[in-house]
Protein backbone atom coordinates (compact mmCIF):
# COMPACT_ATOMS: atom_id res chain seq x y z
CA UNK A 1 0.00 0.00 0.00
CA UNK A 2 1.34 3.40 -1.04
CA UNK A 3 1.90 5.71 1.90
CA UNK A 4 -0.01 8.97 1.73
CA UNK A 5 1.79 12.29 1.56
CA UNK A 6 1.25 14.84 4.37
CA UNK A 7 -0.94 16.89 2.00
CA UNK A 8 -3.11 13.85 1.19
CA UNK A 9 -3.43 13.04 4.90
CA UNK A 10 -4.49 16.62 5.61
CA UNK A 11 -7.04 16.58 2.77
CA UNK A 12 -8.56 13.28 3.92
CA UNK A 13 -8.86 14.54 7.50
CA UNK A 14 -10.42 17.74 6.22
CA UNK A 15 -13.01 15.78 4.22
CA UNK A 16 -13.85 13.55 7.18
CA UNK A 17 -14.49 16.52 9.43
CA UNK A 18 -16.30 18.62 6.85
CA UNK A 19 -19.77 17.29 7.67
CA UNK A 20 -19.31 16.99 11.43
CA UNK A 21 -17.85 20.39 12.29
CA UNK A 22 -19.94 23.08 14.04
CA UNK A 23 -19.41 25.33 11.00
CA UNK A 24 -21.29 22.83 8.81
CA UNK A 25 -24.32 22.85 11.10
CA UNK A 26 -24.20 26.63 11.27
CA UNK A 27 -24.35 26.80 7.47
CA UNK A 28 -27.33 24.44 7.45
CA UNK A 29 -29.08 26.60 10.06
CA UNK A 30 -28.50 29.78 8.02
CA UNK A 31 -29.80 28.10 4.87
CA UNK A 32 -32.86 26.85 6.76
CA UNK A 33 -33.49 30.39 8.03
CA UNK A 34 -33.47 31.69 4.45
CA UNK A 35 -35.85 28.94 3.35
CA UNK A 36 -38.47 29.44 6.07
CA UNK A 37 -38.39 33.26 6.10
CA UNK A 38 -41.46 33.65 3.79
CA UNK A 39 -43.48 31.48 6.19
CA UNK A 40 -42.30 33.09 9.43
CA UNK A 41 -42.08 36.70 8.21
CA UNK A 42 -44.26 37.04 5.10
CA UNK A 43 -44.22 40.85 5.01
CA UNK A 44 -42.53 42.51 2.03
CA UNK A 45 -40.10 44.39 4.29
CA UNK A 46 -38.80 41.13 5.76
CA UNK A 47 -38.51 39.40 2.39
CA UNK A 48 -36.81 42.44 0.88
CA UNK A 49 -34.28 42.61 3.73
CA UNK A 50 -33.39 38.89 3.65
CA UNK A 51 -33.22 38.76 -0.14
CA UNK A 52 -30.93 41.79 -0.36
CA UNK A 53 -28.69 40.19 2.27
CA UNK A 54 -28.45 37.14 0.01
CA UNK A 55 -27.80 39.17 -3.14
CA UNK A 56 -25.20 41.44 -1.60
CA UNK A 57 -23.52 38.50 0.15
CA UNK A 58 -22.91 36.87 -3.24
CA UNK A 59 -21.83 40.20 -4.77
CA UNK A 60 -19.36 40.82 -1.93
CA UNK A 61 -18.08 37.23 -2.14
CA UNK A 62 -17.43 37.71 -5.87
CA UNK A 63 -15.45 40.86 -5.05
CA UNK A 64 -13.57 38.96 -2.34
CA UNK A 65 -12.47 36.45 -4.99
CA UNK A 66 -10.48 39.32 -6.49
CA UNK A 67 -9.37 41.18 -3.37
CA UNK A 68 -9.18 38.58 -0.62
CA UNK A 69 -8.05 35.55 -2.60
CA UNK A 70 -6.04 37.03 -5.49
CA UNK A 71 -4.91 40.37 -4.07
CA UNK A 72 -6.49 42.46 -6.85
CA UNK A 73 -8.12 45.73 -5.75
CA UNK A 74 -10.74 46.79 -8.28
CA UNK A 75 -13.02 49.81 -7.89
CA UNK A 76 -14.98 48.85 -11.00
CA UNK A 77 -16.52 45.61 -9.76
CA UNK A 78 -19.99 47.09 -9.33
CA UNK A 79 -19.93 48.12 -13.01
CA UNK A 80 -20.48 44.45 -13.91
CA UNK A 81 -23.34 44.29 -11.41
CA UNK A 82 -24.86 47.18 -13.37
CA UNK A 83 -24.27 45.45 -16.71
CA UNK A 84 -26.33 42.48 -15.54
CA UNK A 85 -29.06 44.72 -14.18
CA UNK A 86 -29.28 46.88 -17.29
CA UNK A 87 -29.20 43.92 -19.69
CA UNK A 88 -32.19 42.28 -18.04
CA UNK A 89 -34.02 45.60 -17.57
CA UNK A 90 -33.51 46.64 -21.22
CA UNK A 91 -34.71 43.30 -22.58
CA UNK A 92 -37.78 43.14 -20.34
CA UNK A 93 -38.68 46.82 -20.05
CA UNK A 94 -37.66 48.64 -23.23
CA UNK A 95 -36.44 46.64 -26.22
CA UNK A 96 -38.28 43.41 -25.58
CA UNK A 97 -41.24 41.96 -23.73
CA UNK A 98 -41.64 40.45 -20.26
CA UNK A 99 -41.24 36.83 -21.40
CA UNK A 100 -39.02 33.98 -20.26
CA UNK A 101 -37.13 34.09 -23.57
CA UNK A 102 -36.20 37.75 -23.16
CA UNK A 103 -35.32 37.17 -19.50
CA UNK A 104 -32.93 34.38 -20.48
CA UNK A 105 -31.58 36.44 -23.39
CA UNK A 106 -30.90 39.35 -21.01
CA UNK A 107 -28.70 37.13 -18.84
CA UNK A 108 -26.92 35.67 -21.90
CA UNK A 109 -26.12 39.11 -23.31
CA UNK A 110 -24.90 40.28 -19.90
CA UNK A 111 -22.59 37.27 -19.58
CA UNK A 112 -21.16 37.77 -23.08
CA UNK A 113 -20.59 41.51 -22.58
CA UNK A 114 -19.04 40.93 -19.16
CA UNK A 115 -16.68 38.24 -20.44
CA UNK A 116 -15.44 40.45 -23.27
CA UNK A 117 -15.11 43.54 -21.07
CA UNK A 118 -13.41 41.67 -18.20
CA UNK A 119 -10.86 40.18 -20.59
CA UNK A 120 -10.25 43.60 -22.16
CA UNK A 121 -9.74 45.22 -18.74
CA UNK A 122 -7.41 42.38 -17.74
CA UNK A 123 -5.22 42.76 -20.83
CA UNK A 124 -5.14 46.55 -20.59
CA UNK A 125 -4.90 47.02 -16.82
CA UNK A 126 -3.05 44.07 -15.29
CA UNK A 127 0.18 45.42 -16.71
CA UNK A 128 0.07 48.03 -13.96
CA UNK A 129 0.30 47.10 -10.29
CA UNK A 130 -1.51 47.75 -6.99
CA UNK A 131 -3.17 51.14 -6.70
CA UNK A 132 -2.63 51.97 -10.37
CA UNK A 133 -4.83 49.04 -11.41
CA UNK A 134 -7.47 50.18 -8.91
CA UNK A 135 -7.46 53.71 -10.36
CA UNK A 136 -7.77 52.39 -13.92
CA UNK A 137 -10.83 50.32 -12.96
CA UNK A 138 -12.30 53.32 -11.11
CA UNK A 139 -11.93 55.45 -14.24
CA UNK A 140 -13.65 52.79 -16.37
CA UNK A 141 -16.48 52.49 -13.84
CA UNK A 142 -16.98 56.28 -13.79
CA UNK A 143 -17.08 56.24 -17.60
CA UNK A 144 -19.82 53.58 -17.44
CA UNK A 145 -21.87 55.77 -15.07
CA UNK A 146 -21.50 58.74 -17.43
CA UNK A 147 -22.62 56.63 -20.39
CA UNK A 148 -25.64 55.29 -18.51
CA UNK A 149 -26.59 58.83 -17.50
CA UNK A 150 -26.04 60.60 -20.81
CA UNK A 151 -27.43 57.96 -23.18
CA UNK A 152 -30.95 58.61 -21.94
CA UNK A 153 -32.58 57.45 -25.18
CA UNK A 154 -31.07 54.00 -24.59
CA UNK A 155 -30.75 53.61 -20.82
CA UNK A 156 -33.42 56.03 -19.62
CA UNK A 157 -30.78 58.30 -18.09
CA UNK A 158 -31.25 59.24 -14.46
CA UNK A 159 -34.92 58.22 -14.66
CA UNK A 160 -33.85 54.66 -15.34
CA UNK A 161 -35.90 51.76 -16.67
CA UNK A 162 -38.98 50.24 -15.08
CA UNK A 163 -39.62 46.62 -16.00
CA UNK A 164 -41.92 43.77 -15.13
CA UNK A 165 -41.02 40.10 -14.81
CA UNK A 166 -42.66 37.32 -16.83
CA UNK A 167 -45.08 34.57 -15.92
CA UNK A 168 -44.78 33.14 -12.43
CA UNK A 169 -42.37 35.93 -11.42
CA UNK A 170 -45.02 38.65 -11.82
CA UNK A 171 -46.08 40.40 -8.64
CA UNK A 172 -49.75 39.79 -9.51
CA UNK A 173 -49.27 36.03 -9.97
CA UNK A 174 -50.88 33.87 -7.29
CA UNK A 175 -50.99 30.08 -7.25
CA UNK A 176 -52.89 29.74 -3.98
CA UNK A 177 -52.03 29.33 -0.34
CA UNK A 178 -49.59 26.93 1.33
CA UNK A 179 -49.27 26.65 5.10
CA UNK A 180 -51.13 29.93 5.47
CA UNK A 181 -48.86 31.85 3.08
CA UNK A 182 -49.94 33.05 -0.35
CA UNK A 183 -47.54 31.72 -2.98
CA UNK A 184 -47.34 34.88 -5.04
CA UNK A 185 -44.91 35.96 -7.72
CA UNK A 186 -42.85 37.66 -5.02
CA UNK A 187 -42.43 34.42 -3.08
CA UNK A 188 -41.55 32.44 -6.21
CA UNK A 189 -39.01 35.10 -7.23
CA UNK A 190 -37.57 34.95 -3.71
CA UNK A 191 -36.98 31.19 -3.91
CA UNK A 192 -35.69 31.40 -7.49
CA UNK A 193 -33.08 33.99 -6.47
CA UNK A 194 -32.25 31.96 -3.33
CA UNK A 195 -31.49 28.86 -5.43
CA UNK A 196 -29.35 30.78 -7.94
CA UNK A 197 -27.46 32.57 -5.13
CA UNK A 198 -26.83 29.24 -3.40
CA UNK A 199 -25.48 27.72 -6.64
CA UNK A 200 -23.23 30.75 -7.22
CA UNK A 201 -21.93 30.61 -3.66
CA UNK A 202 -21.17 26.89 -3.94
CA UNK A 203 -19.34 27.52 -7.23
CA UNK A 204 -17.23 30.21 -5.59
CA UNK A 205 -16.47 27.95 -2.63
CA UNK A 206 -15.38 25.18 -5.01
CA UNK A 207 -13.41 27.68 -7.07
CA UNK A 208 -11.25 28.88 -4.19
CA UNK A 209 -10.68 25.32 -2.88
CA UNK A 210 -9.59 24.02 -6.28
CA UNK A 211 -5.94 23.90 -7.41
CA UNK A 212 -6.69 27.05 -9.42
CA UNK A 213 -7.82 28.80 -6.25
CA UNK A 214 -4.72 27.66 -4.37
CA UNK A 215 -2.52 29.18 -7.06
CA UNK A 216 -4.43 32.46 -6.84
CA UNK A 217 -3.83 32.56 -3.10
CA UNK A 218 -0.14 31.91 -3.73
CA UNK A 219 -0.12 34.87 -6.14
CA UNK A 220 -1.75 37.00 -3.46
CA UNK A 221 0.85 36.02 -0.87
CA UNK A 222 3.94 36.23 -3.06
CA UNK A 223 3.56 36.85 -6.80
CA UNK A 224 7.31 36.74 -7.66
CA UNK A 225 7.64 33.35 -5.97
CA UNK A 226 4.59 32.04 -7.87
CA UNK A 227 6.21 33.20 -11.12
CA UNK A 228 9.46 31.52 -10.12
CA UNK A 229 7.55 28.25 -9.69
CA UNK A 230 6.46 28.50 -13.31
CA UNK A 231 2.91 29.80 -12.99
CA UNK A 232 1.76 32.38 -15.53
CA UNK A 233 0.33 34.78 -12.98
CA UNK A 234 -1.26 37.01 -15.62
CA UNK A 235 -3.46 34.12 -16.82
CA UNK A 236 -4.54 33.21 -13.28
CA UNK A 237 -5.30 36.83 -12.38
CA UNK A 238 -7.31 37.30 -15.58
CA UNK A 239 -9.25 34.11 -14.79
CA UNK A 240 -10.00 35.40 -11.29
CA UNK A 241 -11.24 38.73 -12.67
CA UNK A 242 -13.46 37.06 -15.26
CA UNK A 243 -14.98 34.62 -12.79
CA UNK A 244 -15.68 37.27 -10.14
CA UNK A 245 -17.15 39.67 -12.70
CA UNK A 246 -19.41 36.98 -14.18
CA UNK A 247 -20.85 36.22 -10.75
CA UNK A 248 -21.37 39.94 -10.16
CA UNK A 249 -23.21 40.24 -13.49
CA UNK A 250 -25.58 37.36 -12.77
CA UNK A 251 -26.34 38.81 -9.33
CA UNK A 252 -27.09 42.18 -10.96
CA UNK A 253 -29.69 40.52 -13.18
CA UNK A 254 -31.26 38.81 -10.15
CA UNK A 255 -31.33 42.11 -8.27
CA UNK A 256 -33.26 43.91 -11.00
CA UNK A 257 -35.70 40.99 -11.19
CA UNK A 258 -36.56 41.70 -7.56
CA UNK A 259 -36.70 45.51 -7.53
CA UNK A 260 -38.04 45.90 -11.09
CA UNK A 261 -36.03 49.04 -11.69
CA UNK A 262 -32.55 50.06 -12.80
CA UNK A 263 -30.88 53.46 -12.98
CA UNK A 264 -27.24 54.58 -12.67
CA UNK A 265 -27.49 55.40 -8.98
CA UNK A 266 -29.12 52.13 -7.93
CA UNK A 267 -26.93 49.65 -9.87
CA UNK A 268 -23.80 51.53 -10.93
CA UNK A 269 -23.20 54.25 -8.36
CA UNK A 270 -20.06 54.73 -6.27
CA UNK A 271 -22.09 54.34 -3.01
CA UNK A 272 -22.75 50.70 -3.93
CA UNK A 273 -19.03 50.11 -4.41
CA UNK A 274 -18.35 51.72 -1.03
CA UNK A 275 -20.97 49.46 0.55
CA UNK A 276 -19.25 46.42 -0.98
CA UNK A 277 -15.90 47.55 0.43
CA UNK A 278 -17.45 48.07 3.86
CA UNK A 279 -19.04 44.62 3.76
CA UNK A 280 -15.70 43.02 2.87
CA UNK A 281 -13.95 44.84 5.73
CA UNK A 282 -16.69 43.99 8.24
CA UNK A 283 -16.95 40.33 7.24
CA UNK A 284 -13.25 39.74 6.67
CA UNK A 285 -11.14 39.61 3.52
CA UNK A 286 -10.27 36.18 2.18
CA UNK A 287 -13.00 34.38 4.11
CA UNK A 288 -15.83 34.15 1.52
CA UNK A 289 -18.42 33.47 4.24
CA UNK A 290 -17.47 36.82 5.73
CA UNK A 291 -19.44 38.31 2.83
CA UNK A 292 -22.63 37.02 4.44
CA UNK A 293 -21.74 38.56 7.82
CA UNK A 294 -20.80 41.88 6.23
CA UNK A 295 -23.94 42.01 4.08
CA UNK A 296 -26.17 41.15 7.04
CA UNK A 297 -24.54 43.83 9.22
CA UNK A 298 -24.87 46.58 6.63
CA UNK A 299 -28.37 45.73 5.37
CA UNK A 300 -29.71 45.41 8.93
CA UNK A 301 -28.15 48.76 9.82
CA UNK A 302 -29.63 50.46 6.75
CA UNK A 303 -33.05 48.96 7.46
CA UNK A 304 -33.45 49.55 11.19
CA UNK A 305 -31.20 52.47 12.18
CA UNK A 306 -33.39 55.08 10.38
CA UNK A 307 -36.31 53.94 12.60
CA UNK A 308 -34.47 54.76 15.83
CA UNK A 309 -35.83 58.31 15.96
CA UNK A 310 -39.48 57.24 15.95
CA UNK A 311 -38.65 54.54 18.50
CA UNK A 312 -36.97 57.10 20.77
CA UNK A 313 -39.95 59.44 20.44
CA UNK A 314 -42.29 56.67 21.55
CA UNK A 315 -40.14 55.44 24.46
CA UNK A 316 -38.61 58.77 25.58
CA UNK A 317 -41.06 61.51 24.52
CA UNK A 318 -39.48 64.27 26.65
CA UNK A 319 -35.82 63.74 25.77
CA UNK A 320 -35.50 65.90 22.65
CA UNK A 321 -31.70 65.62 22.68
CA UNK A 322 -32.01 61.86 22.23
CA UNK A 323 -34.47 62.41 19.37
CA UNK A 324 -31.94 64.66 17.66
CA UNK A 325 -29.17 62.12 18.13
CA UNK A 326 -31.31 59.29 16.78
CA UNK A 327 -32.07 61.39 13.70
CA UNK A 328 -28.35 61.27 12.84
CA UNK A 329 -28.42 57.51 12.39
CA UNK A 330 -25.37 57.60 10.12
CA UNK A 331 -23.37 58.78 13.16
CA UNK A 332 -24.55 55.72 15.07
CA UNK A 333 -23.65 53.54 12.10
CA UNK A 334 -20.17 55.07 12.05
CA UNK A 335 -19.71 54.29 15.75
CA UNK A 336 -20.86 50.70 15.19
CA UNK A 337 -18.45 50.33 12.28
CA UNK A 338 -15.54 51.63 14.39
CA UNK A 339 -16.43 49.19 17.17
CA UNK A 340 -16.55 46.27 14.73
CA UNK A 341 -13.16 47.20 13.26
CA UNK A 342 -11.72 47.65 16.77
CA UNK A 343 -12.95 44.35 18.20
CA UNK A 344 -12.70 42.38 14.92
CA UNK A 345 -9.54 43.71 13.23
CA UNK A 346 -9.62 40.94 10.59
CA UNK A 347 -13.36 41.17 10.09
CA UNK A 348 -16.01 39.22 11.97
CA UNK A 349 -15.39 35.85 10.32
CA UNK A 350 -11.66 36.42 9.87
CA UNK A 351 -11.14 37.23 13.56
CA UNK A 352 -13.23 34.26 14.68
CA UNK A 353 -11.28 31.92 12.38
CA UNK A 354 -8.00 33.29 13.67
CA UNK A 355 -9.13 32.82 17.28
CA UNK A 356 -10.20 29.22 16.64
CA UNK A 357 -6.87 28.43 14.94
CA UNK A 358 -4.99 29.90 17.91
CA UNK A 359 -6.99 27.80 20.38
CA UNK A 360 -6.52 24.69 18.26
CA UNK A 361 -2.76 25.26 18.13
CA UNK A 362 -2.63 25.63 21.91
What would the keywords be for this entry?
two-stranded antiparallel sheet, 18 helices, globular, 362 residues, mainly alpha, ABC transporter involved in vitamin B12 uptake, BtuC
Give a short overview.
The chain is mainly alpha-helical. It is built from 18 helices and 4 strands. It has a single domain (44-304), classed as Orthogonal Bundle (ABC transporter involved in vitamin B12 uptake, BtuC), CATH 1.10.3470.
What is the CATH-assigned architecture? Orthogonal Bundle
Number of strands: 4
Number of domains: 1
Number of contiguous helices:
18
Overview of this protein structure:
The chain is mainly alpha-helical and 362 residues long. It has a single domain, classed as ABC transporter involved in vitamin B12 uptake, BtuC, CATH 1.10.3470. The protein has 18 helices and 4 strands. The strands form 2 sheets. Strands 1-4 form a two-stranded antiparallel sheet. A two-stranded antiparallel ribbon has the order 2-3. Helix 4 runs antiparallel to helix 5, helix 5 runs antiparallel to helix 11 and helix 13 packs across helix 14. The radius of gyration is 22 Å and the shape is globular. It starts with 5 loop residues before the first helix and ends with a helix. The mean pLDDT is 84.
SSE layout:
Elements: H1 6-18, H2 22-40, H3 44-70, H4 77-93, H5 100-125, H6 130-150, H7 152-155, E1 161-162, E2 174-178, E3 181-184, H8 185-209, H9 211-221, H10 223-228, H11 233-259, E4 261-262, H12 264-267, H13 270-283, H14 290-304, H15 308-315, H16 320-327, H17 329-343, H18 348-361
Antiparallel strand pairs: 1-4, 2-3
